[in-house]
Amino acid sequence: MDELKIGDEVKTSIIVPLMPEFDPEWVLLAINNIKYLPIGTIFKIKLIAKKRELDWYYVEVKNTVYQGDLGWINSIALIRNEEKNEK
Predict the structure, then answer these.
(1) Domain-embedded: residue 49
(2) What is the DSSP string of 5-50?
(3) How many structural domains does the chain have?
(4) What pLDDT score was predicted for residue 83?
(5) pLDDT score of 85
(6) Which domain holds residue 25?
């Protein structure tokens, strides 16, 4: 997938984990609260941060049952994703 920028909208072609926090104090609790975005979910990039040299995207979900939810997706989770819509 091309490099993502703030404002980009992405449609998932794979199931993508949405993390509740970027750097959780309680990792196991955060893992229990992961949401899995189904294929066809659209999210908008709101912020980009780096953690251990990986891009992490703070996103807002635009459709599906998670519409309006906010969370973090790392760049590794998107390696096989094939769809990207421009701003």
Answers:
(1) yes
(2) -TT-EEE-SS-EEEBS-SS-SSHHHHHHT-EEEPTT-EEEEEEEEE
(3) 1
(4) 74
(5) 73
(6) 9-78
